[in-house]
Automatic annotation (TrEMBL):
One of its GO terms (molecular function) is starch binding. It comes from the Bacteria. This is 1,4-alpha-glucan branching enzyme. Signal peptide: none annotated. Residues 15-96 form the CBM20 domain. Pfam families: AMPK1_CBM (PF16561). InterPro entries: AMPK1_CBM (IPR032640), CBM20 (IPR002044), Ig-like_fold (IPR013783), Ig_E-set (IPR014756).
Length: 98
């Protein structure tokens, strides 16, 4: 798994690309407080090599809790900027700093 950040000079946003290797998966989505934890509109596209990838514009100077949903299972990003305990989830969420 990986995250790539591209800061735009002309807009107050960061283009964040999420990459998830999940060859056997059918669907992968990224959910977090940037999209109200809704997989709708946040599905990643499956590439020919079995990797799922998607790019989202997120407002800069914020931090976002997030997870991946891989075929219905919640998974944390291994290369997150940090992790934060979430009482509602009863576990840690990955955190993205942009």
């Amino acid at each position: 798994m990986s995250i790539t950040k591209q800061y735009l000079k002309t807009k107050p946003v960061c283009k964040v690309t999420f990459t998830v290797p999940a060859v056997d998966a059918k669907k992968v989505a990224v959910v977090g407080d940037f999209n109200n934890w809704s997989p709708k509109g946040s599905l990643l596209k499956k590439l020919k090599n079995g990797t799922f990838k998607g790019t989202f514009d997120l407002p800069k100077e914020n931090s976002y809790e997030f997870k991946y949903i891989v075929d219905g299972s919640y998974i944390n990003e291994t290369e997150a900027d940090r992790y934060q305990w979430n009482d509602y989830a009863g576990g840690e969420n990955a955190v993205l700093e942009v």
